[in-house]
Amino acid sequence: MAKRPSRAQERQRLFDAAAHVQVPGDCDVIVVGGGAAGLVAAITAAEAGAEVLVLDRDLECGRPILATGNGRCNFSNVNLDPKRFNDPQFVGAVCGDRWLDDILAFFRESGLRWCLEDERLYPMSRSSASVRNVLLARAKKAGVILAPAREVVGIDRIDTTRPGSPKRRKRQEVGVEALGMSVEVACTEPSSNYPVLPNAQAVVIASGGEALPALLDVGLVTARRTPVLCPVACDAPFLSQLDGRRAHAQAYLTKHGSFFPTWHERGEVLFRDYGLSGIVTFDLSRRVEAGDLVELDLAPDLTKSQVQQLVDPFASGSFEPGCLDGILDPQVVRVLEDLACQCWHVEWAERPMPETDAAALIDLVKALPLVATGLADTNHAQVTRGGLLTEQFDPATLASREHEWLFACGEALDVDADCGGFNLSWAWKSGMVAGASAAQLALSRRGFA
Ligand SMILES: Cc1cc2nc3c(=O)[nH]c(=O)nc-3n(C[C@H](O)[C@H](O)[C@H](O)COP(=O)(O)OP(=O)(O)OC[C@H]3O[C@@H](n4cnc5c(N)ncnc54)[C@H](O)[C@@H]3O)c2cc1C
């Protein structure tokens, strides 16, 4: 049997393949970033008739898709709702009423088939590689030039026809024809120390959640980027005993200084020694700040009196150890029982103290309190909040209001959402809008080039 190539060999193979790709001097649309949004933008523009070049700094395009949904890619959600986003008005205006239909039609045409888990959509294969592969295949079929291993380092609007223009001289030196008003994108070249300067009529920024310094050249304003959709660090003395345990809970968030919860969500919670993880926690991470109170109802399907029936059916005031083993992870039960016996409660200093151990245990099951101290493990955050301020872009076209040749989509814009396929749905749909508008502009200008 043939030996599997080592990581270094695989990297070398990808590097060699990338170095073989010829970056054209001119095309209609350049897409900066070949992730989720960039690939869809490129396909949409190319299928509309534009010559499209995708520049990505990674060794392969589409790589970020592989990590999504724990390798299964939760690519959309049947309940797409702008309210799940930080900027519902902008997202609603970009995505319209047929958002889900548009996404599903796009993927159906790409050859993907899917399945539903709760309201989340996954590829039928449950493999994120399926999503990436159908996109790469469709991009190839549409004639998109995918140029990986090219980091974009500059973006500039130029007039290459102006006599004596230094830009014109520079372009002539590297053998590129003067073409009139166009956009020059400087990117690194794997096989050379010199950047190449492809030229286009329109540029789509699809560079994801990291800063793109080249955008400073065109004066666009970016909101500070911070990680979200990650675990939450909490202060509670029992967490080390619960590390790795799970519960199906309803989480409530009460902002510091407030008396009532402002948000709640139900789903799986994973206890970690530093705090909480799991999908519900990721959604919590978009709203929580240090000092906020997080309460977990660990038996959301049972009322307080139903829990009482299990804990203390004869109202004796005490409970039998293990009385909750039938509804909760036994290790979670042990910890709650210990806390109940100590009458521990972060909030009991301010609330009436439960009179008996049994009452304390019932309270802990229905509202286990933890004080958030911040976000945790932010290196593995799924999304970045911040990015290009949305008011700089026309939601109908995703064109910059200042530079009609510049479009943006995906996480490059200051748009983020809850877990559940919402972030990728934004990437796909905003990619479609930006790609279609960029192609329209470029094609309308072709005659003047
Ligand atoms: C671990 C993980 C799991 C996730 N799971 C899900 C999920 O199941 N469902 C969901 O909806 N969302 C999920 N997300 C979020 C989702 O992946 C993102 O919202 C989505 O990928 C954003 O798409 P994008 O195209 O805007 O950015 P990306 O997909 O990040 O693509 C950006 C591309 O731009 C390239 N690039 C950046 N800078 C440059 C430069 N200077 N020059 C050239 N190229 C550049 C990068 O190499 C990259 O390929 C997950 C995220 C992570 C990290």
Low-confidence stretches: 174-179
CATH-defined superfamily of the largest domain: FAD/NAD(P)-binding domain
* Coarse shape: elongated
Number of strands: 22
CATH topology call of the largest domain: FAD/NAD(P)-binding domain
The share of residues in extended strands comes to: 15-25%
The helicity comes to: 25-40%
Structural class computed from helices and strand pairing: alpha+beta
**Given this structure, which CATH class of the largest domain is correct?**
Alpha Beta
Main beta-sheet strand count, sense and barrel state: 6 strands, antiparallel, barrel
- Which second-level CATH architecture of the largest domain applies? 3-Layer(bba) Sandwich
| Helical run tally | 13
Count of discrete structural domains: 2
Intertermini distance: 55 Å
Strand order of the largest sheet: 13-16-15-14-17-18
Ligands in the model, by name, code or SMILES, are: flavin-adenine dinucleotide
Using the CA coordinates, give the radius of gyration: 26 Å
**Average predicted local confidence, pLDDT:** 90
Characterization of the model:
- The structure is a single chain.
- The chain has helices at 7-20, 36-47, 63-66, 88-95, 99-110, 128-141, 166-173, 239-242, 279-285, 304-311, 330-342, 357-366, 422-446; strands at 29-32, 52-55, 76-77, 114-117, 120-123, 145-147, 152-159, 181-189, 192-196, 199-200, 202-205, 222-228, 232-235, 246-254, 263-272, 275-277, 293-297, 368-375, 383-388, 393-394, 399-400, 406-408.
- The strands form six sheets. A six-stranded antiparallel barrel has the order 13-16-15-14-17-18.
- It has two domains: 22-226 and 384-446, FAD/NAD(P)-binding domain, CATH 3.50.50.60; 230-378, Elongation Factor Tu (Ef-tu), domain 3 (Beta Barrel).
- 45% of the residues are buried.
- By secondary structure, it is of the alpha+beta class.
- It binds flavin-adenine dinucleotide (FAD).
- Flavin-adenine dinucleotide (FAD) binds at residues 32-38, 55-58, 63-64, 67-69, 73-74, 151-152, 206-208, 210, 212, 382-383, 410-412, 421-424, 427.
- Flavin-adenine dinucleotide is lined by residues 32-38, 55-58, 63-64, 67-69, 73-74, 151-152, 206-208, 210, 212, 382-383, 410-412, 421-424, 427.
